[in-house]
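pasting for ref
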Amino acid sequence: MQAFFASRSFQTALSTHTYSNLWLYPYGYDAFLPANDGDYQEVTALAIAVNGYLAGPSATTLYLANGVTTDHEHETHGTMSWTPEIGGDADGFWPPSSRIVPLAEENHLGFQTTALAAGPYVHADPVFDELGDGDGYWEAGETLAWPRLWNTGRAGPPP
């Protein structure tokens, strides 16, 4: 796996596990944050928007763990890397086959988000500002402020 990973330039990666309904990122071996923790928090918040998983660094969100994939990929290759711990207590380490599709569906957005974040991932803030009477509703004759656009991705726009 190390040779495979070293032969490519992955910008984001997932090491998917079961279980605990967690979305973990570096570091696992010690209780400190990566220098780009703000980037991790931004992508992670988008990734867990649907499933509501608890998220954060492995060491402080779950437990101290040496040799975790996310730490290696982050430190050695500069890859933003996460470990989703999929499924709850009832699912255990080997969820029943009836839970496979529901678990995949609840994590689809998270997987998509981390894949899109590998490139230029420009998206809009879902909140519109109502510029009328300030009551938060868009009524006849009022205008809306355009949503804020930003790039959560690891790359700029294509050349």
